[in-house]
Amino acid sequence: MKAIVFEKIQQLSIQDKPIPTLNDGDVLIRMELCGICASDLAALRGDVSDYAPPVVMGHELAGVIVESRHSDVKTGEKVTVNPMLSCGVCIHCQNDRDKYCNMIEGIGHDIDGGYAEYIRMPKHGVDTGKLIQVPSTVPPEELLFLEPLGCCLNAMQETIFQNSVAILGAGPIGLLFAQLTKRAGLTTYVFDPLPHRRAIAETVGADATFDISPDDVAHLHEITHGGVDTVISATTNKTAVIKLAFQIARKGAYINFFGLAPEGQELRINLEEFHYTGHKLMASWAFSRSSLEESRQLLLQKVINFKPLLTDQFPITQGLEAFDNAIAQRGIKTALHP
Fold it and tell me: What is the pLDDT of residue 196?
């Protein structure tokens, strides 16, 4: 089968690999679609360290079971995965915080993932509930968003909101956040330097969109009378983004640095200023099992508009071009198919 292998920083290759063989309890998934995640791009740049190359990346996947050696799984089932395989018994796993488990293994991070024609889900993953089945009527173009939507829902549960929210970044994650915050009844503003992404934000319900220029920041201050109640940074937290978050947050606001940050990026705070501005700072990442189940339910209820988000699809044989497309931010979400 064809697969895209992350060999080392700044090096991807398309390789011929054997179709995975199964042990007792394993299942084999034939891939339909797999989305390129910003974390994969960060790993390729060398900005994050939670990958173990050489590895087949890909964790935002949609597929079908084509072979099962597990008594609870039937062939033909449409599935995606919870890509964090954990021990299932430690205090973190018991509290639905699998991501903090000391035994974590990430699909597409540590073990081969979805940028391939087939992927093996090991027995342990099935036994601990990491295989997520959906009805056959759920299209792969929506199913690949179950995991990223679960990440956003987890952040929504952890963040405190009042009346207004600004979302930094109108990529796939920012656009999911925009729909969730509007659904929660919040006045939603979206910042992005790219006009085509701001246009999509407007189509999914943002109340207003802004460039990142000083004039746009001043305009937001004018219409909000001093800034927003909550800021969610849904983009890479570079110095300019961190500065923008504080510029548009009113006194006493909540700021969630959801996005990844380049390696070595620091957040420096004048503690006296911080004391008197009263900002509440936090960071959310990944998902819980409960947020993935909530995401599954929203997919089934068809309350999220995924159609404008998936803009580009490439075959695995054109995987390098697909990564170039995602890096260039030509569309919104880039996905791969066999």
Answer: 98
Q: What is the mean pLDDT of residues 226-235?
A: 98
Q: Is 206 left (phi over 0), alpha (psi -120 to 50) or beta?
A: beta
Q: Which residues contact 109 (CB under 8 A, 6 or more apart)?
A: 43, 50, 51, 52, 55, 57, 59, 83
Burial 295-327, CB ≥16 within 10 A → b, else e: bbebbeeeebebeebbbbbbebeebeebbebbe
Task: Check whether residue 23 and residue 47 sit in a common domain.
Answer: yes
- Domain assignment present for residue 174? The answer is yes
**pLDDT digits 0-9 by tens, 254-279:** 999 999 999 899 999 999 999 999 99
Bridge partners (DSSP) of residue 81 are: 131
pLDDT digits (tens, 9 = 90+) for 134-144: 999 999 999 99
What's the rounded mean pLDDT across residues 314-319? 98
Edge-to-edge strand order for the sheet containing 249-256? Answer: 208-210, 187-191, 164-168, 228-233, 249-256, 280-282
Closest among 43, 41, 56, 113 to 323, alpha carbons compared: 41
316 part of a folded domain: yes
CA nearest 147: which of 6, 43, 36? 36
The enclosing domain of 67 has a CATH number of 3.90.180.10
Crossing angle, helix 214-224 and helix 239-248, to 10 degrees?
Answer: 30
Regarding whether 312 and 203 lie in a shared domain, the answer is no
Q: Which of 73, 70, 57, 68 is nearest to 133 (CA)?
A: 73
Q: Which residues of 276-294 are buried (b: 16+ CB within 10 A; e: fewer)?
A: eeebebeebebbbbebbbb
Q: Of 182, 176, 185, which Cα lies nearest the Cα of 150?
A: 176
